[in-house]
Design a protein that fits this description.
- There is one protein chain.
- The protein has eleven helices and 13 strands.
- It has a five-stranded mixed beta sheet with strand order 1-7-6-4-5, sandwiched between helices.
- The protein is of the alpha/beta class and 331 residues long.
- It is globular, with a radius of gyration of 19 Å.
- The chain has two domains: 3-175, Peroxisomal Thiolase, Chain A, domain 1 (3-Layer(aba) Sandwich), CATH 3.40.47; 179-330, Peroxisomal Thiolase, Chain A, domain 1, CATH 3.40.47.
- It has helices at 20-24, 31-38, 53-68, 92-99, 116-129, 155-158, 209-213, 223-244, 262-272, 283-286, 293-303, and strands spanning 3-12, 17-19, 42-44, 77-81, 106-110, 135-142, 164-173, 178-186, 194-195, 220-221, 254-257, 312-319, 323-330.
- Helix 3 (53-68) packs across helix 4 (92-99) and helix 8 crosses helix 9.
- It starts with a strand and ends with a strand.
- A hairpin with a 3-residue loop joins strand 12 (312-319) and strand 13 (323-330).
Length: 331
């Protein structure tokens, strides 16, 4: 059986930098309040005249392909993770396919929110291991800022979420490297603890004045519940990956967690007794970009030389669903 190896990564974030000081001007908040609760100092929000989920994904993908030494035509299949597609349907996978000039190949959309990129990575891994495809483009991209309630009432979530895209190129290899295992979990009992209710199809009228006047289009998040579950599931799924491969936490060279909240990442780091140099965080500068957060962080870590040949890399995520996932990779 073939292994699947990440041979190139890339990311793109919008040019518009929104600092905590910028948010102080539009809502009742302070830089200190935001940093204390989230660790975020600034984030990127999209330019409606310039950025779309698909074209941000295209820029990240082209960078990943260049870093892999490939051209778009080498791609056999696309797996695209996003909960903020450009259209209600179709998904953004086919839009990325069109922008890359890859008409005809398959494009699969994944809607697992913050765990979306690892779910997408796992799907791509299985396709390659079975021999169905040789080269797969895996992407996470989001535009969250256009759905945020930027008033004081919505500040608990609007200071966190941001926009961007990240991509990875997976290719079949006979080497004893690449993705060692992936682990996917979910618990729908908590679906409404972190969700956006509308526009939902299970309404008598999908769009009405009453719905538009209400708050069901805004993100609803029970922050305490999310935190309590996240810190447990993060540790569980990381240990699951290590146990599957008969490894210890000391074997990890770099943990890249989903950038949900710096407090969560630091809590997990402390639980696992990992030194700072073994955990990569960039939420301070990019905010929480949901499905894009792990591929953006992975791409940035590669650029900075923090990912080296033969390193053991662990990716882990927790988010809406609830869903949680991990991937263990021998680079």
């Amino acid at each position: 059986m073939k292994n699947s190896k990440i041979i190139g990564t890339g990311h793109y974030v919008p040019e518009q930098i929104v600092t905590n000081q910028d948010l102080e001007k539009i809502m009742d908040t302070t830089n200190e309040w935001i940093v204390e609760r989230t660790g975020i100092q600034e984030r990127r929000w999209f330019d409606p005249e310039k950025d779309t989920v698909a074209n941000m994904a295209t820029k990240a993908s082209k960078k990943a392909l260049k870093n892999a030494g490939l051209v778009a035509q080498d791609v056999d299949f696309i797996v695209f993770a996003t909960i903020t597609p450009d259209y209600f349907f179709p998904g953004s996978g086919v839009l990325l396919q069109r922008e890359l000039g890859l008409q005809g190949i398959g494009a699969l959309d994944i809607r697992n929110a913050c765990s979306g990129f690892i779910y997408a990575l796992s799907v791509a891994d299985q396709f390659i291991k079975t021999g169905m495809y040789k080269t797969i483009l895996v992407v996470g991209a989001e535009i969250q800022s256009s759905a945020l309630d930027k008033s004081t009432e919505g500040r608990s979530s609007s200071v966190i979420f941001a926009d961007g895209a990240g991509a990875a190129v997976l290719q079949a290899t006979q080497e004893q490297k690449g993705i060692l295992s992936t682990h996917l979990h979910a618990d729908g009992d908590y679906a409404e603890e972190l969700y956006v209710k509308d526009p939902g199809s299970s309404r008598k009228v999908r769009l009405s004045k009453e719905l538009l006047d209400g708050a069901t289009f805004n993100l609803t998040m029970n922050g305490n519940t999310v935190f309590k579950h996240a810190v447990v599931r993060f540790a569980e799924v990381i240990h699951e990956a290590l146990a599957q491969n008969k490894m210890q936490k000391e074997d990890i060279d770099l943990l890249i967690p989903h950038q949900a909240n710096l407090r969560i990442s630091q809590f997990v780091q402390k639980q696992m007794n990992l030194p700072d140099e073994k955990v990569y965080n960039n939420i301070m500068h990019f905010g929480n970009t949901t499905a894009a957060s792990i591929p953006i962080a992975l791409s940035e870590a590669c650029e900075k030389g923090k990912v080296k040949d033969n390193d053991l890399i662990c990716l882990a995520a927790f988010g809406s669903g609830f869903t949680w996932a991990s991937a263990l990779i021998r680079w």
